[in-house]
Amino acid sequence: MPKQCLRTDRGPEAIGPYSVAVRAGELVFCSGLIPIDPKTGVIVGDNVADQTRQALRNLQAILEDNHLSMEDVVKTTCFLTDLGQFAAFNEVYKEFFGTDPPARSTVEVEALPRGALVEVEAIVYVGD
Predict the structure, then answer these.
(1) Residue 30, helix vs strand vs coil
(2) What's the rounded Cα separation, in Å, for the pair 90 and 49?
(3) Could you write out the DSSP letters of every residue in 92-109?
(4) CA 83-63-105 angle, 5° bins
(5) Considering only Cβ atoms within 10 Å of each terminal Cβ, which end of the chain, N or C, has fewer?
(6) How many domains does the structure of the chain reveal?
(7) Angstrom distance (rounded) from CA 37 to CA 44
(8) Of 8, 15, 10, nearest to 34 (Cα)?
(9) Distance (Å, whole) CA 46 – CA 17
(10) Going by C-beta distance under 8 Å and a sequence separation of 6 or more, which residues neighbour residue 96?
(11) What is the CA radius of gyration of the chain?
């Protein structure tokens, strides 16, 4: 199966020359999502909790519009500009991933696009 670029009308557009998500065989690779309000194009929230919630809503929109769910996510890589906010990030993260969360890496970075505090990328298993 050739790669297929996935889109959503309920999530933000890519802010550069890349696809928001790409399906390759049984896997979907979701680009890093920052907390952009898809209607306004503006970063939502001024704290890690609010921004995490929006970034994960954006991920959820991409998945749902392509007949997938958060339960299909097998790996996330999460970027925070301040690991001191790790607990606040985790509180929101567990709201979206429940009792069987995906594997995850979380790293602190100096800066993120548009001044975001959080960015989340995901790998999703589509299966048969």
Answers:
(1) strand
(2) 9
(3) HHHHHHTTSPPEEEEEE-
(4) 25
(5) C
(6) 1
(7) 6
(8) 15
(9) 27
(10) 56, 60, 70
(11) 14
Over residues 80-100, the pLDDT tens digits come to 999 999 999 999 999 999 889
Print the domain residue range for 49.
Answer: 4-125
Q: What's the rounded Cα separation, in Å, for the pair 109 and 50?
A: 18
Cα–chain center distance at 66: 14
Q: Is the pLDDT of residue 108 over 90?
A: yes
C-beta separation of 8 from 14 below 8 A: no
User: Percent of the chain at pLDDT above 90?
Assistant: 78
CA 74 to chain centre: 12
| End-to-end Cα, the chain, rounded Å | 13
CATH code of 58's domain? 3.30.1330.40
In whole angstroms, what separates CA 97 from the centre of its chain?
12
Retrieve residue 26's tokens. Answer: 């049984």
DSSP letter assigned to residue 69? -
DSSP reduced 3-state for 28:
strand
